[in-house]
Amino acid sequence: MFYWLMKYVVIGPIVKAIWRPWIVGRRNVPAEGAAILASNHLSFVDSIFLPLMLDRPVSFLAKSDYFTGKGLKGWATRMFFKGTGQLPIDRSGGKASEASLNTGLQVLGRGDLLGIYPEGTRSPDGKLYRGRTGIARMALEAHVPVVPVLMVDTDTMMPIGTTIPRIVRVGIVVGEPLDFSRFAGMEGDRYILRSITDEIMVALQRLGEQEYEDVYASTVKDRLKKKTR
Predict the structure, then answer these.
(1) Does residue 109 sit in helix, strand or coil?
(2) What's the pLDDT score for residue 84?
(3) Which residues form the Phospholipid/glycerol acyltransferase domain (predicted)?
(4) Count of H helices and E strands in the chain?
(5) What 3-state class would DSSP assign to 135?
(6) Which parts of the chain register pLDDT below 70?
(7) Less packed terminus of the chain by CB within 10 Å, N or C?
């Protein structure tokens, strides 16, 4: 109920009126059944615009920090993410990564749409970076298609580190679903998982004009932090 109110009554109409988002390829999202929406990640607002422009609800795996903030702002953020179907995950690795995987599989097991950012974090400079293989493992274990999604100009609207969004028209391009059923039963093969993940990233890169760099975005962020010290 809260999700419906946010999308169609409270937030959705205002956001659409101000930023006039556009979408191409909406029909590529399955009308029913489970699927993974694999999106590039340019801005905090990516998780707002994609569900807003689709007919079906989307659950995103969001970093747990969004659910642990203090004060009024922390409470508001937490309520917003919970109300819009976002799921907290711990990105510290190890057992935490396994728990995140299981959370995603639960969503897919219900026949719902799961949104994932294969890069694992927002791009620090607008480039597309190497994908994490967790998405491939989920696709194989859940036996679901992967739909590539490209967010356009959301980083211009709200760059990393800013709190006030700019009035910039943003867009979404949805590609054709990717079928990995030929790899059924191979979710334990790390070479297969890497191959699938790379195929997803190639599909994302082909949807737009993002420059691709075959390193993890988190590695680039660490380098940038060291340079600013």
Answers:
(1) helix
(2) 66
(3) 35-154
(4) 9, 9
(5) helix
(6) 1-2, 64-69, 73-74, 76-85, 90-97, 228-229
(7) C
103 exposed, middle or buried (CB, 10 Å; 0-12, 13-18, 19+)? middle
**How many Cα atoms are found within 13 Å in the side-chain-facing hemisphere of 147?**
25
Cα–Cα distance for residue pair 44/158, rounded to 1 Å: 7
In the DSSP assignment, the letter for residue 120 is S
Q: Tokens for 73?
A: 């702002």
Q: Is the CB of residue 51 less than 8 Å from the CB of residue 159?
A: no
Tokens representing residue 176 in the block: 């054709």
Which amino acid does the sequence have at 57?
P
Q: Report which of 128, 118, 121 is spatially closest to residue 200, judged by C-alpha positions.
A: 118
How many residues belong to the chain? 229
Is the entire prediction scored with pTM above 0.85?
yes
